[in-house]
């Protein structure tokens, strides 16, 4: 496939744009009660993006609905600029089904990013909603390894020694995950809400389900969950 990404000399312009957009991020709140979480994931096969969105009731700990959408999309992955590839499919599924949610959850970086703005922050800014990012490897920052026991955690710091997220061990003797705020939520509240989610594996259940469904074959579907 022929890349449609601009030449190397243009990449610095995009990085500068990211830095300027990052100044709009608000790391406060949330100011309202968060009831409905939306976990999203995207897989790519043969020129298509397979997007899954799990609408999750936080207090009842169950999936309300699972939305599935296939669309033509084949942007390449560019390190540090995940939003260029991933944000359009995320926007498309939310707009197509008019999905209601209070909090976005993505398998991506929030503010723990070289430019201070990962995909989770871009998505939060776009939808004007609180957002949180979870990654399996540290995207940016410094931390001490937490205990090997489930539930242990440690802060994630930037170069100014500010807390930009948390390192969280969700299973005994399993590698931790990295939780970072994206937008309209602070690091402590982001971590508190993520702790409330069920963990049957390394990742929280809504994000695990989103990953599973994005790897299936579908065109456009809605699957009903708890009523």
Could you explain the architecture of this structure?
Helix 2 (82-97) packs parallel to helix 3. This protein is 26% helix and 28% strand. It contains 5 helices and 9 strands. The chain is globular. It has 227 residues and is α+β, with helices and mostly antiparallel strands. It starts with 7 loop residues before the first helix and ends with a strand. Strands 6-7-8-5-4-1-2-3-9 form a 9-stranded mixed β-sheet, with helices on both faces. A hairpin with a 2-residue loop joins strand 1 and strand 2. It has a single domain (8-138, 180-224), classed as archaeoglobus fulgidus dsm 4304 fold. It has helices at 8-22, 82-97, 119-127, 187-196, 205-214; strands at 36-45, 48-57, 62-72, 103-106, 131-135, 153-157, 163-168, 177-183, 220-224.
Question: Which regions have little confidence, pLDDT < 50, spanning 5+ residues?
Answer: 1-6
Q: What CATH architecture do you see?
A: 2-Layer Sandwich
CATH topology: archaeoglobus fulgidus dsm 4304 fold
* Sheet having the most strands: 9 strands, mixed
Content of β-strand: 25-35%
Q: Can you write the helix and strand succession as a string?
A: HEEEHEHEEEEHHE
Strand order of the largest sheet: 6-7-8-5-4-1-2-3-9
CATH class: Alpha Beta
Number of domains as seen in the coordinates: 1
What is the C-alpha radius of gyration, as a whole number of Å? 17 Å
Main structural class:
alpha+beta
Number of strands: 9
CATH superfamily: archaeoglobus fulgidus dsm 4304 superfamily
Distance between the termini: 44 Å
**SS field, number of helical segments:** 5
Give the overall form: globular
């Amino acid at each position: 496939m022929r890349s449609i990404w601009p030449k190397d000399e243009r990449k610095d312009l995009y990085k500068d744009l990211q830095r300027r957009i990052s100044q709009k991020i608000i790391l406060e709140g949330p100011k309202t009660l968060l009831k409905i979480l939306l976990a999203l994931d995207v897989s790519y096969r043969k020129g298509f993006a397979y997007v899954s969105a799990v609408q999750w009731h936080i207090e009842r700990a169950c999936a309300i609905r699972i939305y599935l959408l296939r669309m033509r999309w084949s942007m390449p992955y560019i390190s540090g600029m995940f939003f260029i590839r991933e944000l359009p499919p995320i926007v498309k599924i939310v707009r197509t089904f008019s999905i209601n949610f209070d909090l976005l959850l993505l398998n991506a970086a929030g503010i723990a990013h070289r430019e201070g703005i990962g995909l989770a922050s871009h998505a939060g800014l776009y939808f004007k909603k609180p957002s949180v990012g979870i990654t399996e490897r540290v995207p940016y920052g410094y931390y001490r390894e937490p205990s090997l026991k489930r539930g242990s955690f440690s802060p994630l710091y930037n170069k100014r020694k500010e807390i930009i997220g948390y390192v969280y061990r969700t299973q005994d003797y399993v590698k931790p995950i990295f939780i970072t705020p994206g937008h309209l939520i602070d690091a402590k509240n982001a971590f508190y809400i993520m702790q409330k989610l069920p963990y049957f594996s390394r990742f929280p259940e809504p994000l695990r389900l989103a990953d599973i469904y994005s790897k299936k074959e579908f065109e456009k579907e809605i699957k009903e969950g708890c009523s």
